[in-house]
Amino acid sequence: MDAMTKMWVSFIGIGLMALAAVLITIARTKTRGAVRIILSIVAFVVLIFGFIYGFASIL
Question: Where does the sequence pass through the membrane (predicted)?
Answer without folding.
Answer: 6-27, 34-56
